[in-house]
Amino acid sequence: MDEQDKRRIGEDLEPGGRPKAPGRLELLQRFINSHNHDFPHDWDRLGTAKKAKGWMREKGLVAAGDRISDDDAARLREFREALRELVIANEKGRPAGSALDVICWVSRLARLSVAVDEAGRTALEATDGGVDGAVATLLGILHEAQLTGEWARLKACRQCEYAFFDRSKNRSAAWCAMSICGNRTKNRAYYRRRRAA
Ligand SMILES: [Zn+2]
User: Fold this and answer.
1) Which residues in the chain show pLDDT less than 70?
2) Exposure of 174 by Cβ count < 10 A (0-12 exposed, 13-18 middle, 19+ buried)?
3) Where are the alpha helices (DSSP H) in the chain?
4) How much is the pLDDT for 61?
5) How far, in Å, from the CA of 121 to the mean position of ligand 1?
6) Entry pTM
7) How far does the centroid of ligand 1 lie from the alpha carbon of residue 176, in Å?
8) How close is the Cα of 192 to the center of ligand 1, in Å?
9) Measured in angstroms, how far is the CA atom of residue 182 from the centroid of ligand 1?
């Protein structure tokens, strides 16, 4: 896979050609995948205030006039990594206390209300605008996905911690893509065995 394709991963390219998470969970999935730790640091889509603003604006999470400071961008990255810990915990059990602290800390600022559409369907919607509103929206999606059970199908790749939606019946998928991370893991195991032998 060349650099151009790698840079599309998490946006218009899903490793292994997997479908993205369903409904609004896709937005939360993209948020978590706004950076892949296997890629260079400066590829982080929330890496600076300017990049965070562009990305959040594109996703409709903030409005054109909203400001995002360096501190806001740092807070968003911290929130993202705490969410990643929750995804990892979907397989490994309890999330780290530090991740929960971050989620609790941001959730105290998050204000949500129940929105009703013309069909009578309800959804949690942020009351405020700006970064606080964006965080509230994402927490609302997290809550909804936990209620529907879809959250449990979001998993972190064992190798690169990419958040992918596991549609397999027995929920056995372990890597974002066998061709990328699965093989790398296997190759390492192979070389380890060979060295040992
Ligand atoms: Zn991976």
Assistant:
1) 185-193, 197
2) middle
3) 3-8, 25-32, 49-58, 70-92, 97-107, 130-148, 183-196
4) 97
5) 36
6) 0.91
7) 4
8) 20
9) 7
